[in-house]
């Protein structure tokens, strides 16, 4: 069970962090635009961080799966190719997850 | 206002039409969130509360295993900061578009998800603020609706399928592809992969935080090199 009081505390903290991040450019626009390194980070960090989050969660799934990383690698490759060609996030996420769940539960590999 | 403007007095209907593609994604993905949240042992109304208060898909998917593991509020807040950092750079390109009026602005800023951002950036500058806010409200409405549906379904029966949490990896993969599509340089991806390959053997548990630190350090070096080469190009 997830304790609801604890979950509400987490939700409040997450809401505050998310809102602050979304509000920062409107509050500190002048400061952000004045510094070229902020613009550079803006071009660099979103792709770098997303790549890391993707790799980290794939590695996380692979370490939980006793039968190796091939199901994870295959499923994530499927998501990447689908998204690149279709630009349909829903299709890519549901198909990729669906294939992964099949591989994990029915010993196809 | 120019004569070829599609809608001089945009009806709520046109805002609804603008959010239809978002609804197609938000309702099912919200359903998956609500379902997984309840399956992990959460109360259905807490899942709905998360979609009302946080309203950030990747962060909400990420919170489920962290809540189930009973991690500290600070750890989950830090992870949220990392996952949502990209939002800092969204607002900058919307600065001149944002409507006047405290509450209109505050709600639009709150609701600035990836999808709402991409709808808003396609609207002409003459779009009335009421329509912008309506787009954001409808988008959150779809997300909350999906969450509620999923949470109700999830509380009916326990499903024992391994690997459902791969949905988070898939979502990150989709966001990576979309960041890659608008990239100015492929360097961030390669640097990130190299940083992770370096960090993982050192400390597998903290590989994410270490490799983010390494990537930021590398980006600052990359920036020095890049700005040096632009000055050379100018000369």
Query: Largest interface, per-chain counts?
Result: A-B, 71 and 92 residues
The portion of residues assigned to helices of chain B is over 70%
Determine the structural class of chain B based on helices, strands and strand pairing.
Answer: mainly alpha
Output mean pLDDT of chain A: 91
The end-to-end span of chain A amounts to 33 Å
Instruction: Characterize the main sheet of chain B.
Output: none
Total strands of chain B: the figure is: 0
Category by helix and strand content of chain A: mainly alpha
**Number of helical segments of chain B?**
11
Count of helical stretches of chain A: 5
Question: Mind explaining what this structure looks like?
Answer:
The complex is a heterodimer of chains A (109) and B (235). The longest helix of chain A is centred in the middle third of the chain and has 29 residues, at 36-64. The radius of gyration of chain A is 19 Å and the shape is extended. Chain A is mainly α and 109 residues long. Chain A has 5 helices and no strands. In chain A, helix 3 crosses helix 4. Chain B has 235 residues and is mostly helical. Chain B folds into 2 domains: 12-182, no CATH class; 183-235, no CATH class. Chain B is 72% helix and 0% strand. Chain B is built from 11 helices and no strands. Chain B has helices at residues 12-39, 44-53, 57-68, 73-84, 88-91, 102-110, 114-122, 129-154, 166-181, 187-202, 207-234. In chain B, helix 3 (57-68) runs antiparallel to helix 4 (73-84).
